[in-house]
Write a structure and sequence with these properties.
This is Electron transfer flavoprotein small subunit. The chain is an alpha/beta fold. The protein is about 25% helix and about 25% strand. Bound molecules: flavin-adenine dinucleotide.
């Protein structure tokens, strides 16, 4: 089985502070981490490898320093790593990012493509489904359990108020959430392997994507304005049984003529 895991390097949002004057994010000096949901995707791929045997390839699209995230994935147990990087990708929105990653994944042998549900910086949850669309793959998002039965997978997909049991044929794409598993730590022997392991570098000319679909040119999203939402007040905490709390909330909303 060949499993490709999409890994995004993101700023550790626990460390991001807001500039009190400009109201913008202070990114300088903020450490980068593997996006948390992507760690669950890596863990699931490694667990499937432990159970059924698999080759796990991690792939990221990003600047050269994103190689660190790939090395960490190798130290967790991934077999191969690919960094897709080119100035032509600058300004990519989620559509261009999905198409670029899909173009790279298309060059690989894969049975399962895994991504995190959502990146903690961009937060759109669009890239996994976008890759599946570009590759023409069936997909299941919000995956919280995977069982392999030959060429089909039995998946438990989390819903807001329960779960759904689904069966899907490989090749397919899955997006991972944190309840899927507990990501393993890097292992000492793999840390040494990660040092020596060469990461494959691909640029725009190595992947089969229409140049018009790359970077800013291939990005229909236009950001008109960004701002930090003002905190209006401390709020009021009401600790009551759910039914009584709902009645209090209702009366407060009526009092303010919201309903
Ligand atoms: C107009 C515009 C311009 C932008 N310009 C830039 C820019 O110049 N440089 C820049 O860095 N960002 C840029 N961005 C942000 C960039 O589009 C997003 O960070 C990126 O598309 C991923 O979206 P997301 O963070 O919402 O990921 P989500 O869709 O929330 O991510 C879901 C999952 O997809 C996978 N994934 C997402 N991104 C990657 C990746 N890069 N590599 C591997 N796997 C991935 C991960 O598994 C992740 O968990 C721009 C965005 C817009 C709207």
């Amino acid at each position: 089985m060949n499993i490709v895991v999409c890994v995004k390097q993101v700023p550790d949002t626990n460390e991001v502070k807001i500039d009190p004057v400009k109201g913008t994010l202070i990114r300088d000096g903020v450490p980068s981490i593997i996006n948390p949901d992507d760690k669950n995707a890596i863990e699931e791929a490694l667990a499937l490898k432990d159970k059924h045997g698999a080759k796990v390839t991690v792939i990221t699209m990003g600047p050269p320093q994103a190689e660190v995230a790939l090395k960490e994935a190798i130290a967790m147990g991934a077999d191969d790593a690919i960094l897709v990087s080119d100035r032509a990708f600058a300004g990519s929105d989620t559509l261009a990012t999905s198409r670029t990653l899909a173009g790279a994944i298309a060059k690989l042998d894969y049975d399962i493509v895994m991504a995190g549900r959502q990146a903690i910086d961009g937060d759109t949850a669009q890239v996994g489904p976008g890759i599946a669309e570009s590759l023409g793959l069936p997909q299941v998002t919000y995956v919280e359990n995977v069982e392999v039965e030959g060429k089909s997978l039995k998946i438990r997909k989390a819903l807001e108020d329960g779960y759904e049991m689904l069966e899907i044929q490989t090749p397919c794409l899955l997006t991972a959430i944190d309840s899927l598993n507990e990501p393993r730590y890097m292992q000492m022997k793999n840390i040494f392997t990660a040092y020596d392991k060469e990461v494959t570098m691909w640029n725009a000319s190595d992947i089969d994507v229409n140049p018009e679909h790359l970077g800013l040119k291939g990005s229909p999203t236009k950001v008109k304005k960004t701002w930090t939402k003002e905190v209006k007040g401390a709020g009021e905490l009401v600790e009551l049984p759910a039914k009584d709390a709902a009645a209090v909330a209702l009366s407060k909303l009526k009092e303010k003529h919201y309903i």
